[in-house]
């Protein structure tokens, strides 16, 4: 979630947040500041930390200053993310800053949510000594009780007259974490104002990918961690997974610029196989145009959709079906799907290099389906099919693909 989105959900959960809303233009930022009628903070909205240190959070006193601040922030980039919105919200009268986060502790002796609290919140939380960050494992069955929160706060040094104020906030914060199926929920800083109120001045909300289907009201477009803004390919690829839960089957962007040579439509089968296929490509200086996966015994129709997206990318120089593992799923589903796709694609991309490695359960039948199904297909002049004899032979597969790609590139130049 972007900060302003997370804060809206905190507000709906009864957690105090600063008044304000997002703006997409400098004029809109000016109007929001005028409506608030007080000094405001103008904050870049990107899925990246360190905004304050990068100058993307500005404190201003007038609507015109808010407009100017928004104009200086919008359109910039922070850690590779373009700033398309700013949050314009009231400037708080800060008495003290705290740090609160709930994350999943996946350690073997924990495997539960963990609350972390510090009285040293703010911009440099990374440099706070470990002994000043207090941690509490939360029972998934019983949740965070007030007395557990009080015990933690006493250890952190919160004064007695403030214990219940903080404890009630933490319990409500846990309630939001659980209600929204969060993987991470953080406010840094949690601000105590001069009047003694606790306000979530910032919000980092990360909803568990596997729980997104339970929250259609959030309008999350892609339930996957991408590390970049979703591309058109990401949206299309996620649509396959979103609408069909039979096995895994998705496609993700890998930064393909659609102009440079040497990009391969990459179709691995499973995580270990994916890494070996990457080696096969990297070792011969070929590049994956995308990432994908079809594992967990998906049906042929789902594999077909994934392969169709991969092969429909413009200007790829080849296609690699990388089954670098002896899979226990029935591989003839892959064979049927790939045959159907290549019979549709190759007449439109004649001579496209295709190296198909498939082995494991139903291997003989699968290889027979590939050979028979692609026999005499128009444009299938550079299709090579391999089985278990090359299951871990990344050098061989890479070299065969490279040789076919060089032929194909030379043919295109003529």
TrEMBL record:
InterPro entries: ATP-grasp, ATP-grasp_succ-CoA_synth-type, ATP_grasp_subdomain_1, Succ_CoA_ligase-like_bsu, Succinyl-CoA_synth-like. Its EC number is 6.2.1.4, 6.2.1.5. Keywords: ATP-binding, Ligase, Nucleotide-binding, Tricarboxylic acid cycle. Pfam families: ATP-grasp_2. Residues 7-216 form the ATP-grasp domain. Signal peptide: none annotated. One of its GO terms (cellular component) is succinate-CoA ligase complex. The keyword Transmembrane helix does not apply. It comes from the Bacteria. PROSITE patterns: ATP_GRASP. GO terms for biological process: succinyl-CoA metabolic process; tricarboxylic acid cycle. This is Succinate--CoA ligase [GDP-forming] subunit beta. The lineage of its organism: Bacteria, Bacillati, Bacillota, Clostridia, Neomoorellales.
């Amino acid at each position: 979630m972007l900060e302003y989105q997370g804060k809206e959900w905190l507000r709906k959960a009864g957690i105090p947040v600063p008044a304000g809303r997002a703006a997409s233009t400098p004029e809109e930022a000016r109007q929001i500041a005028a409506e608030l009628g007080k000094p405001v903070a103008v904050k870049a909205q990107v899925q990246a930390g360190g905004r304050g240190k990068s100058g993307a959070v500005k404190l201003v006193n007038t609507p015109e200053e808010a407009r100017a601040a928004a104009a200086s922030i919008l359109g910039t980039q922070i850690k590779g993310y373009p700033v398309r919105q700013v949050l314009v919200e009231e400037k708080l009268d800060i008495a003290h800053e705290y740090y609160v986060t709930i994350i999943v502790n996946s350690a073997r002796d924990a495997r539960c949510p963990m609350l972390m609290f510090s009285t040293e919140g703010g911009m440099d939380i990374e440099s706070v000594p470990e002994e000043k960050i207090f941690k509490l494992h939360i029972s998934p069955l019983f949740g965070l009780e007030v007395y557990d929160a009080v015990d933690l706060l006493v250890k952190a040094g919160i004064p007695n007259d403030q214990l219940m104020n903080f404890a009630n906030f933490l319990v409500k914060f846990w309630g939001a974490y659980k209600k929204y199926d969060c993987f991470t929920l953080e406010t840094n800083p949690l601000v105590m104002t001069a009047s003694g109120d606790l306000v979530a001045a910032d919000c980092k909300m990360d909803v568990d990918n596997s729980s997104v289907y339970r929250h259609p009201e959030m309008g999350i477009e892609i339930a996957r961690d991408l590390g970049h803004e979703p591309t058109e390919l990401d949206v299309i690829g996620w649509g396959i997974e979103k609408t069909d839960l039979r096995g895994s089957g998705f496609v993700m962007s890998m930064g393909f610029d659609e102009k440079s040579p040497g990009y391969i439509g990459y179709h691995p089968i499973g995580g270990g196989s994916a890494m070996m296929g990457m080696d096969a490509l990297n070792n011969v200086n070929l590049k994956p145009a995308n990432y994908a996966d079809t594992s967990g015994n998906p049906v042929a129709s789902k594999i077909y959709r994934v392969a169709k997206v991969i092969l429909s990318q413009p200007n790829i120089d080849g296609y690699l079906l990388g089954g670098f593992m002896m899979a226990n799923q029935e591989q003839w589903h892959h064979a049927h799907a790939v045959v159907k796709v290549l019979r549709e694609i190759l007449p439109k991309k004649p001579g496209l290099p295709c190296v198909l490695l498939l082995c494991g359960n139903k291997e003989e039948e699968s290889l027979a389906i590939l050979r028979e199904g692609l026999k005499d297909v128009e444009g299938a002049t550079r299709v090579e099919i391999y089985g278990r004899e090359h299951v871990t032979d990344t050098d061989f597969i890479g070299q065969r693909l490279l040789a076919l790609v060089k032929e194909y590139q030379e043919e295109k130049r003529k």
